[in-house]
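Q: Start with the shorter request: fold the first protein.
A: Done. Sequence, then structure:
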Amino acid sequence: MMIQQINLLLAVLLTTVLIFYLTWSSQGKEIRRFVSPAPAQAPANTCFVSINDTRRLSLSSEPMIYFITPSYPRREQVAELTRLGQTLMHVPNLHWIVADDNRMCNPMITQLLPRFGVPFTHISSPMPEIYRSVSVIPRGVANRRAALDWIRANVKSGVLYFGDDDNTFDLKLFEEIRDTNKVSMFPVGLIGEYGVSAPIVKEGKVVGFYDSWPAKRKFPVDMAGFAVNVEYLLKYPNATMPFRAGYEEDRFLRSLGITLDMIEPKADSCTQVLVWHTQTNKKPPPVLKIESSVDSSLRDLLQQVSYMGMASISNSNGSHSEVIVIRLRKKPKLKSQQKNVGVKTYMSKDGKVTAV
């Protein structure tokens, strides 16, 4: 009888230990899901910084907006940066930070950005290789992290905002976010199944969120749906975002220690859409096969297309590129103007001259 009781006690103890172990190990796995590892990666590199503002806009003492744009090489990159740059041209007191997913500084971007007259910083910030093979790539995280590091090292005040290069912005948005005290939020259009993602405001306070993919996030918002005061950011030197697609915004906002009552609703108490999550139909850049040498304007054009990453040129493989050359036939002269060059002409009844 005593032996049976001892065996029962040991079984209970072993079961209890096993339950505690499984609970602890599962919690550890859950924590590791959200805490980003420190993978080996090439460090971010500041390629170029320009403080020149050549737009001739009337400057004021209003806070500077640091507009962070993550980008990556693709054939639409130049087109989308150009479209965005020509929007930012109209925004005073703005510094544009373009963080490119590239190991090397892309000279194309360094040459493109000055065209808009906006003060800018160009950063090369490659994504760690271990994340390029996951099922859902956390694109833009390394870029935004690098931009945050640059702000912490070089900026003391202002407002930061994450704006993708394929999004669309109403100029009124910049007026709205410029006076952000801690963290401001506002609706983003063309998001998910609902067509919009937005904070819900009641009596001037954010009380919840409207989003088609809550996914147990405390702050289910889009990256384009909030702005942060730089002085407030600097109080949280470890605030960052994880390499986990879909949870970047939520974890970044949590790391800033904000609560619902701290959020500043913008865009007329979150009743207006001033930014849209538009997306370009992306295709891989083609390889164009040019078999013969090109001695016309096409040669320089194709070199420019290749430089911009819109296509690559090859004389041995790729899609056959047909060059159509239209040769115009010279207008024949009248018989009285013809020289004796061995070409016979005759005049038809309708008065047209034909060479035979």
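Q: Next, the second protein, separately.
A: Sequence, then structure:
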Amino acid sequence: MADEVEEKVNPEIKEDEAIEQFQNGQLSYIGQNEECIPTYLAEKYSSISKRFDLSFNQLKSLSDLERFQNLEELVLDNNRLSDDVVFPRLNHLHTLTLNKNCITDLYHLLDNLAENVPSLTYLSLLGNLACPNQLSSPDNDEEDYQRYRYYVLYKLPKLKFLDSTPVKQEELLTAKEKGAFMKVIKAEDSELISDPKISPETDDSNYSPLPQSARNADQHSAAWGKVNMFTMATIQRETDLSETLTFKMTLTCEHHDFERKN
């Protein structure tokens, strides 16, 4: 009878105990649809947690994570973390998994981790658009993924394991030498929008160098001779992942004088 009364008086305590699990420094709070870390978890466990599993929630923010200063492992798989996520300073964190989130900006993330997570040796980003493997898009190929690995290792040279594969010594050497050139710069959406100042009256896309009187097919004359046209082109090819060739092409065409006669 006493047990039934206790269960009715303190239902929340038993519910919390069923949701979170803590044992030997390992805290798990999985599949609770939380958008941020519950404050009571930080208050109760932050100073004694070494491993924190928050997978299968709806996390959009990492507020209160800065209170977990003894954290060594952090599991954030299957959440909704995006490019605005900010990792606080965590000196002891060596393992971080961010699989299947909403991260597209690899460079912002790596800058943040390089600055605030100095001991990181294990990182996994599978299932994010920022990680160009076939899990994120079937259009990606092995070369895309290898360039990504070189750049990540260039930014985080202490990594021993990236995604599902151990880091090889040859990768580290190549990343140190050429990783900086593996960064892909994408055009911003705003750069692709037409200039609103351009109107049909001012649009010169149909510009012609011919005088107005000679723009009709039955009213023009032309010259016949030789004209050399020069164009500069830069072609980048992946010989050793970095070689760039610049060359000049000359095109000669013949042009003759004639005048249309009716």
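Q: Describe the second briefly.
A: The CA atoms of residues 20 and 29 lie 5 Å apart. The first helix runs from residue 2 to 9.
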